Amino acid sequence: MSAQVDFLIVGQGLAGTALSWCLLQRGRSVLVVDRESGNSASRLAAGLVTPATGKRIAKSWRWAELFPAAVAFYRSREAELGDTFFRQRPALRFFIDARECEEYQRRAGGLLHGLVESTTDINPEWFDAPFGGFSMPAAARLDVSCYLNTSRAHFRARGAYRTAEVVPRDVELTTTGVRVSSLSVEARTVIFCRGFDAGTDPWFGSIKFNAAKGEILTVRVPGLTEDRVIHRGIWLAPIGNEVFRVGATYTWEPLDSAPTTEGRAEIESRLRAFLRLPFEVLDHNAAVRPVIDAGFPVLGRHPEHPQLAYFNGLGSKGSLLAPFFADQLASHLCGEGTIDPEVNVLKALCRP
Ligand SMILES: Cc1cc2nc3c(=O)[nH]c(=O)nc-3n(C[C@H](O)[C@H](O)[C@H](O)COP(=O)(O)OP(=O)(O)OC[C@H]3O[C@@H](n4cnc5c(N)ncnc54)[C@H](O)[C@@H]3O)c2cc1C
């Protein structure tokens, strides 16, 4: 006899986890399945959330909606799980040159008003920041591994989680939904939350990724007790006891999770450009960001097979994007709401 659930969720990264919570909150039955390969983007993500991003110090896309949704979502999960994994803490950004400083001056009183503040609180014994920098008081950081692990334990304790690989081709369409014989499960809807997918998917496989590999170092910096995240082209994020994560690179070929000597050299050289203290490399990892097109999320039901749905494309901002769009997708899947046209999977499926 097959187990019956409302929703089968394939993938327990940031996308699948947030969606599972949103469906459970709506009283639906869920089974989350993950192959636990260890190389997923979410397992490597630093969980950084900032209102100003990129070379042009642009305001993060839909910040005014997305950030409050993320804060409310992670705070609720913390209360439910009895753990702490989301911290709101100012982050610092150092200017690389005078041009970047001018760019900041132009934006600070306009688009970024209220989100950034000039600062002189930069320790010159630790950092070389001749052009100064600014603070982002409304920054935050998600301890992604802690959030995913505690969520997984919660789902598992309720019989809503299994370790398994679900090959999309093995999902059989039925008159009432789908059947996956290898799992002995029938569901009304299956949602693929698989991150970067270089394999073949008979339904959503035509969606084009613009995925980007990222590498990260874990370093020990004796004497450095900075507890804010520092951004200066790359970022330096404290994890305690003088240990920091630093990254990340962006490369597009090959798209695999193998750390490279070039990636390590790039991060080390960019770190030395602003860190005055010597450091020791403790670890080096890589993963692929699931970027689709220009980096917008992609979600919704398949146009011909409504029992199949998709949630992907969280790019380099999964911690910020997942809660808002998981809630939008859950609402849609439960017949309560619609998907924004700009993130609707129909758009990605139609793109040549
Ligand atoms: C180096 C690096 C640094 C980053 N830093 C940040 C950051 O600071 N802040 C931020 O917000 N984002 C960051 N990101 C981006 C973030 O990691 C992604 O946005 C996010 O993790 C994507 O989540 P996802 O659930 O869509 O995909 P994934 O994390 O890839 O999760 C997909 C899951 O599906 C599972 N899966 C796939 N196929 C199958 C199958 N057939 N059967 C069963 N399970 C399957 C996988 O095992 C995996 O667990 C970073 C990414 C990288 C690579």
TrEMBL record:
InterPro entries assigned to the protein according to its UniProt record, in alphabetical order: FAD-dep_OxRdtase, FAD/NAD-bd_sf
Q: Which organism is it from?
A: Gemmata palustris
Q: Does the keyword Ligase apply?
A: no
Q: What is this protein called?
A: FAD-binding oxidoreductase
Where does the record place the FAD dependent oxidoreductase domain?
A: 6-330
Cite the Gene3D superfamilies for this sequence. D-Amino Acid Oxidase, subunit A, domain 2, FAD/NAD(P)-binding domain
Keywords in alphabetical order: Oxidoreductase
Does this UniProt record's set of keywords contain Oxidoreductase?
yes
Superkingdom, taxonomy of origin: Bacteria
